Amino acid sequence: MKSMPATTVFTIGELSRRTGLPVKTIRFYSDRGLLPPTRRSGSGYRLYDAHALARLELVRTLRELGVGLSDVARALARETKVRDLAAHHVEALDEQIRRLRLRRAVLRAVVKRDSELEEVKLMNRLAQMSDEQRRRLVEEFWTEMAEGLDVDHEFYAWMRSAKPELPDDPTPEQLEAWIEFAELIRDPDFRLLIRKMSERQAADREAGEYEQPSRAQQQNWPGWITDARAALEAGETPDAPSGRALATAIATASARPDQDPRDPEYRRALADKIASGGDPRAERYWQLMATINGWPPIPSTNEEQRFLVAALRS
């Protein structure tokens, strides 16, 4: 392509034919100072040289990329580098894409759930929360659950360390899980449940009776749950031989040296302790967290826990 003489000038109409941009658009850019005329003709028409043509192409490219007029003006005035302008615009586009993906996930969830208007509003509001807002919601929940109580702060720090991390492009299931999770931790009944758990822990600490599950309990718990499931599937009751054997194993592994695992009173107290932490809503908390964060699914063990509790009490 032959280069144009430096003296070549164009009218707005000629610029329009060369670039394909409407005359009205070029005139608008010129009026806004983005494309100042090189000079005017004797009749007062605006004329533009080859440099102005190149400038117009840059304006066109930046506008097609979605850059605002004020940012285009700054780039043309060399108040900012095009590279920096592009970097900022990438960040803005990333955020816009994130929001569009969330909207898409909300609409998919609406279709799946056949939601009513009020639920749609709630879903959209919760979905638009930032990662920081979601983390803060969990932080405030656990802070309130332990406020003013002498609890095991290491344990509560571990509980609040798990945060819901909703992906930029969540599945409808992840979005639904987040909405249910947010509703759960704001539910007065659930908050009362967890607060009472905290109060019991504080009371146990004050009485010198608080202790974390022993290593034997932690190691054997999955196996006890598996055995309880097998007994249930076999149609056995908690007072059957399999249930009694499980009760003995749990009591023996859980007892301190000063406790008798055969003592019925000790077994009932142990059963009460297991039952107090086995509320389905507490389990649901972690199941929802797993779905939101893409962790392996957490199956429900409520039925198995009830079997173990009943076996200890029998």
Automatic annotation (TrEMBL):
Keywords: DNA-binding
Pfam families with a match to the protein in the record: MerR_1
Keyword Lipoprotein: no
PROSITE patterns: HTH_MERR_2
Record bears the keyword Lipoprotein: no
Ranges of residues in domain HTH merR-type: 9-78
Source species: Amycolatopsis ultiminotia
Alphabetical list of SUPFAM superfamilies matching this protein: Putative DNA-binding domain (SSF46955)
UniProt protein name: MerR family transcriptional regulator
Recorded superkingdom: Bacteria
